[in-house]
Structures
1.
Amino acid sequence: MAFTLLDPSSTSKLNRFDIPALSSTHYTDMNLNYTCIPNPNNPEKWIYSNFVEKIEDKKYFGDNNLKDSSNNKIGNVCLNQQKISAGTHQIFFSYGFTKASLPANSYFGIQLYNNGASDVTYTEFNRGYGFNGTGTGQLGPWEAVAGKTVHNFLTNTSQSTRTIKSNKSIWLPEDLYALKSGSNIVSGLIKFSVTGSVIVSTYMYSDISKIDGSATIYPHPLNTSDIAKQYSGIANGIKYKASITLDAKDMPLYEGERDANNNIKKSLRIQTCKASISNLKIDGTSASTDLRPITLANPSSTIISSTSPNQNLGNWGFPYEFDVTLKNTSESTKKICGYVRTDSAGTVKNYELFPVINSGNTTYYTVLQSVTSATVYNSWKFFEKELKKDEMFNSTFTFVNGTNGTASNSLFFRLY
């Protein structure tokens, strides 16, 4: 049985509100051990494409025949390129663009090229992608792109299969190419498997016939300029998995509540998408951060880590799957609640955190920010579960931080 998730868009405002910052006296960080071990024979890869973040010039295009105003050759570049082995992998992409600064016919696409002697079967498991804007096929404002792309990825599980012939390629997403007027963002996630090695390349382009395989990877400058704050590359693993147990007997109904021994009961906290986290292990080894180390596409010897400059900003599009056991060993009926709260000011104007949560067939997303207003809050109560004395409940939920959510965040658990 899945969690009954609470809709954050509820007009009653019971599910979104402001939680004041808690002192360490009133919470404790849970001991957490994430599993993210790729299969050693067929390692799962997370292909991360977000550089160059904003495409405002055709010099970032893959066409091999482009020239600038001085007749100098430009372009013939891809924005990410990775060779992956047979196995299951995941792509995240997010790009801004200025349509008026680009050729009239401008396109986005991800090429999978089979340079082997045998055919490769491509099987797609999950997909979610789109543009911002209000036209046909557009998802709405920025926060809708951040939320709906992940929502659709988690819920769109219709499987499809295609064949990549030897020395041939296919393009993804096959129904999302032309950059749309009235848009300036394209973003999405795709989970897939391949039966053999392929080369995955991310392109902006004007004429697909001018992409001939000779493109180089646009290099990351490795400095502190605005253009360097994003990155394209690859990391191991395609999700985190962890098991947690919550007992109502140990949880507070209000801050400062004390147990029978006069000890303060503490809310339980899981921090995510943060450079420094306590009580954390990954694959059984102590870790100080959950931010995935991403090896850049170019220069390929450089790893983007959790520290400035050029750090992984928030594991955008990376799923956290929690197997949760709730129990109540107290003497009366209790209600356990789960919250997601933004911990810090982000860097994307007013929109700082785009949490997406799925359980079973239900998926919701919202916008949270630390500088709150009459319509935007810092917390979302995403579930509540009432348990009678000695009752237990087990289920899973998946949390994803949507694109450009730059605030670290916490999952809190307490009584209500």
2.
Amino acid sequence: MGGRDIGGAMSQKFHGHKFDGTHDIIYDRKSRSYRLLPIGRNIPSADKILEAAGFGREEHQIDIDVREACDQVDMGQVSHAEVKPHLQMYVTAWLGFSKDFRACWRFIGEHVLHSELGYACTPSRIGYLFGELGGKPGTSARAENRDESIFPFSKRRGTSAIVEITTTGASYSAGPWLAACQLACIEHVHYFTPEIRMLVRLDGSGRYSFAVYVDDSDKDFFLGALEKYRRRMEGWREKLRRWLGLPMPKQMPTEGAS
């Protein structure tokens, strides 16, 4: 499991089971799904749900390696100098972003579960941004998007945020995927509602750029994709039951039926 909640244990329910510190969510990269242990229940990822709607995210190995390197440095497992040489400038860019925005992370690579809607995801960071837009032209890491009006920054309390790290830039699914993470985070993490959703692109030259997603339609798009995914899964189950000769589930009588 990724970083833990420094504010205390979490308690949720998933289909009648209590979700707390005694349960783990394990991600299977091959099937793009999660497994809730010790229950043994498979949970689709937000990626898999969006993929069913034709908007899957293509994950490159460099993205995986860079995220892992940034995680290790942020958690103090390795120093910047100990990172593999071909990843060091990406980490330089990430540290520049974290410094510019005075980031304070509550979760690092944490699997978050939406128990009611039945999916999970793993945003790179969940936490607070205390700084204003930082960086100056010519520095090793600087912001290229300087539209400060979209940031409800409060230096005193910070701005709650979900941040995803990438090296390949934005895709059509980035907005809906971050919206899915936001919905899961609201349910999974008590008393924490992310105000902004941010995609940070790290460059091998040591610079970073970012995009902020504020469109509420991203949430509606993901919920629509989730409904499409559920219908497809139910269709497969029905075909499997027919093929195996199993009885079909009983249908609840509709209102007014005799």
3.
Amino acid sequence: MGKNKYENLELDKKAIKRSLKQLKKTPGEKLEKILTQKNLEAEAYQTSQNFTLFINTINKISSKFFESYEFEKAIKKLNEIFSKNDPGFTDSQKNSLNEKMKDLMSDLFYYIPLDQKMEKEIFESLRNASADSPLYTSALISRLAFENLDSDTLKIISSELDKLLKTHFDYNAGQREIADYYIRLLSQEKRNLTTEELSQFLEHAKHCVPLHEMIDRMETEISKHSSLEKKEKTTKPKTS
């Protein structure tokens, strides 16, 4: 028993000496790697905590909308989460957050009877979204989906979404929502699209994956517009 204990002690000493020798060879490099790993772990943990916080806040907002109808408090919370800067989420986490926010907006407008005051408050919160916020693109897309925009605002939102890289998680959703906005004008305003509006639709519809389902019909429409414009030019009487 005593002998075994002594032998184990000797083995432990040898192991410690080997470790010390290894550290002496590259102490700086070893320490740097350890510290870097620790920092990465700490950052990943903090990002995970922030992500959980964002998800929980969105869930609370949703709960307030559907259970208690406390719209003012919900809008205040919505503004708070939109104003937060990007805390270093991964693309996958950003995608999850944006999808959750867009689903919340859809449920809100489709299932809750909103009066003008409520709508105004919601759109105001979406307009106040910071460009640095991880939820910025979902705010832009939600405005396209539910707000009646003037032509200048539509151009600004389209321009912001066009700036996204094609690899961005919301690029395709943005292009499709812009194209859908022009299609909704047909039914909402009960009028034909102008040549400029048709061109804008086609520009964004062609970037959708898969291609927008209305693209063939709208290409036919723009051909008709072009033919009519040419005909008008040729039949227009000359002024002396």
4.
Amino acid sequence: MSKEKAKKTTRLVLIIEDEPDAAHTIKGTFEDNGIAAVVVSSFDEFKAAIEKGLDPSEIVTDGLEGDWEKVVRNAKTVPVRLHSSDLDYQKKARGMGIDVVAKTPDSPQILLKELSKAGIK
């Protein structure tokens, strides 16, 4: 299989998380279970990564002090999942049809299960 074809079939989750410990835990959980993951810490880093050609199969974003909505608008056709403890963000995201996983100590495992159900492996 050519490198180009392999690149297109590899699943990659882009994690946008501004808390380094949370980002490390989520990324580690995904990678320990065979899911490739890249972490950025802000909307601006997300946008730069996409402009440089990063092609994720799914995006998991923190609330980013409200910037999660910019992520959703700029994600194009890539599914976005909100990972936030902010109830207002959760309510708005659900109203927009965005999947939500509340931040809890178990949320990295919950995210992993949700991604697996969505076929992200």
